[in-house]
Amino acid sequence: MTEIKEQPDTSGRTGTRLAVAVHVEAELLRFGLQAMLPGLAAVERAETFTHLGTLERALARDRFHVLILSSSNSASGSLGRLRHTPQGLRTLMLLDPVDAESDSALARLPADGYLLREELTAAALDRALRQLAADEMPMPLRLGRQLLSHAGESAPLLPTRRVRLTAREHEVLAHLVAGLSNKQIARHLRISEHGVKRLVSSVLLKLGAANRTAAVVTAIKLGLID
Questions:
Q1: Which end of the chain is more exposed for a tag (fewer CB within 10 A), N or C?
Q2: Contacts of 77 (CB under 8 A, 6+ apart)
């Protein structure tokens, strides 16, 4: 993945500068993002793609840090149809109200972070992008509570499955549940961020999870955490 640039903002502080790709089919939402993204402090550049093939060619050049998708239409399934995505690409899903209320929306729409379309503002989007850059998962509080609630309710329906995590992986899993970033986990465990990344990858692999949200849900269903 292209290195994330650190540049001073207008207050003299160092900030994350990201290359953002947008693949959203709803015109009003797409135009709104086109107008909003260039003015965000976290964004170095933003490009919009209306066709999947064009998006795929751009991603193959390994030029983007974040891909923004919408749950409103076929764009929500685009990531699964891409033949190539650069390692480290983060996905941000904009959820429509109907998807936000759905018990299975997050399982059907895996991403590295979520925002509610009805609550989309420049400040919320900028904050979400910064969280993704810091290996954190942006998610509205009510959505997170709903996710954990449904995960607990559906636990008996999950087929029995044995997952063996090491003591260190259990520690990392607990920190993932708490929403900590890799940097914060490294500080708690007193190991390098590279070591944390390897442990997180191992946890995701063992749980068969595509991202941190899925890992937490699966761990709850399997009884690995309360």
A1: C
A2: none
Q: Strand 66-70 relative to strand 113-116: parallel, antiparallel, unpaired?
A: unpaired
Domain tally, the chain: 2
The band of 113, judged by pLDDT with boundaries at 50, 70 and 90, is: confident
User: For residues 91 and 110, what is the distance between their CA atoms, to the nearest angstrom?
Assistant: 9
Residue 147 lies in a domain: no
Among 84-88, 127-131, 193-197, name the most confident range. Answer: 127-131
Q: How far apart are CA 136 and CA 196, in angstroms?
A: 13
Domain containing residue 40 = 5-141
Q: Is the pTM of this model over 0.85?
A: no
Residue 216, token pair as written in the block = 């937490």
d(CA 203, CA 2) in angstroms, rounded, equals 25
Rounded to 5 degrees, φ, ψ at 67 are -115, 125
132 and 166 share a domain?
no
The yes-or-no verdict on residue 109 having pLDDT over 80 is no
In this prediction, residue 158 carries a pLDDT of: 43
Domain assignment of residue 148, yes or no: no
d(C-alpha 154, C-alpha 210), whole Å: 19
Q: CA 159 from chain center: how many Å?
A: 26
**HEC-encoded secondary structure of 154-214:** CHHHCCCCCCCCCHHHHHHHHHHHCCCCHHHHHHHHCCCHHHHHHHHHHHHHHHCCCCHHH
